[in-house]
């Protein structure tokens, strides 16, 4: 049941996945107990799903249970414990508790570096989450080295055209843009645009977003001569209306 729920979750069928996860949690609590590793997997998965649905209070309660139990059963440096810590940190961030989220994400990053290594996908994911949180706190100087580390790690382990790498390129570009470093941001925006066009096509929402970022930067760099920005934009506004709808932000 849990595996079928995970499949539906990956496919984007959150209501279907939730029903199966709830059944798995209930059955495993009854048959195996609250602290059995399989029960904790189901609790963790249901917490992740509720976070994806936007039920942050429900997600927090389940992930706190998973963290507490996994600390007791596996220890604080077990990969499963660290995964629950990281996801709980992102839930607190989403709820606006940036200090609480930062403490958990720092713990997750430190533990995953030690247990899994600096280039493990889980470590890079947690580093990226911590970078996002620091940006939300306004600590751009603290976030930048984290974004750079994630980008370097993704390039080395996944390649330049992997979706995670392209997302890292775009994130670093936006951070540099926010800092006012337009010279640093422009080549990253350009690389993200080229990569999304190549891998996703001209009509994908991520490609359209990359076009918008790049064209906006070009316009701000040379507002008197906006031809480069117009060329970069092309027919993206018309495509966006067609693909996303006229009311999409």
Q: What does this 3D model show about the protein?
A:
The protein has helices at 2-11, 14-32, 37-53, 56-74, 79-94, 98-115, 121-136, 140-158, 163-179, 182-200, 205-221, 227-233, 236-244. The chain has 249 residues and is mainly α. It folds into 3 domains: 1-71, Serine Threonine Protein Phosphatase 5, Tetratricopeptide repeat (Alpha Horseshoe), CATH 1.25.40; 75-158, Serine Threonine Protein Phosphatase 5, Tetratricopeptide repeat, CATH 1.25.40; 162-249, Alpha Horseshoe (Serine Threonine Protein Phosphatase 5, Tetratricopeptide repeat), CATH 1.25.40.10. Residues 235-246 have low confidence and may be disordered. This is Kinesin light chain. InterPro entries: NLR-like (IPR053137), TPR-like_helical_dom_sf (IPR011990).
Which value, in Å, is the CA radius of gyration?
21 Å
Mean pLDDT: 90
Assigned CATH superfamily of the largest domain: Tetratricopeptide repeat domain
Structural class: mainly alpha
Number of strands: 0
Shape summary: elongated
The CATH C-level name of the largest domain is Mainly Alpha
CATH architecture of the largest domain: Alpha Horseshoe
**Roughly how much helix do the residues carry, as a percent range?**
over 70%
Number of domains: 3
Protein name: Kinesin light chain
Organism: Emiliania huxleyi
InterPro entries: NLR-like, TPR-like_helical_dom_sf
